[in-house]
């Protein structure tokens, strides 16, 4: 977790104002997952995290519990916490839930959009574009996730926003596990075009663009072929069965 420790050292002062210690820990771990600095199946040692954040293990446990409720951290009895590692079946369910959620958010965003909210989203897209242009894939991915969370805020529906935060971070885990090919980003124009449709009040076009966007995310994930395994019995299962 060296990358997380370096990130905390640089950014903790900007996170503290107006937040509890629980919030500080939660935000840093959430961002680290979005940026894929904490990949799936990473063990989240309470003692190490308590040292990194200079807080008690009780605070660490509360933050991890909050993340587990969003299904991006798994807490296992007697084994501690780890970053979730969704199976392919779970991944398909997450993407389907994301599709349903995004379409509902888009419809409400068209209804509740304001010039200020649109401009805030456009600034995020600019920062996302800049991050990818600079080769900072992790930051670009986090900003892409923040864009979708901002859309949920624009929708003005608190339960949808809570669900969206969980689904965005879970999607980042899926990309870390199952994305095929290189990390070339292809969503920048899609985000801008979507904002144009929302700003113009064209609900039908906005929904079509969001549907295409989610399908694009889905198409980059390898969720159909068999996963590789480090279990020798699984790798040589055909040979064993043929005996």
From TrEMBL:
InterPro entries, alphabetized: GntR_C (IPR011711), TF_FadR/GntR_C (IPR008920), Tscrpt_reg_HTH_GntR (IPR000524), WH-like_DNA-bd_sf (IPR036388), WH_DNA-bd_sf (IPR036390)
PROSITE patterns, per database record: HTH_GNTR
Protein name (Swiss-Prot/TrEMBL): GntR family transcriptional regulator
Keyword list, A-Z: DNA-binding, Transcription, Transcription regulation
GO MF terms held by the record: DNA binding; DNA-binding transcription factor activity
Organism: Vibrio galatheae
Top-rank taxon: Bacteria
HTH gntR-type domain location: 19-86
Gene3D superfamilies noted in UniProt: GntR ligand-binding domain-like (1.20.120.530), Winged helix-like DNA-binding domain superfamily/Winged helix DNA-binding domain (1.10.10.10)
A Pfam family the protein falls into: GntR
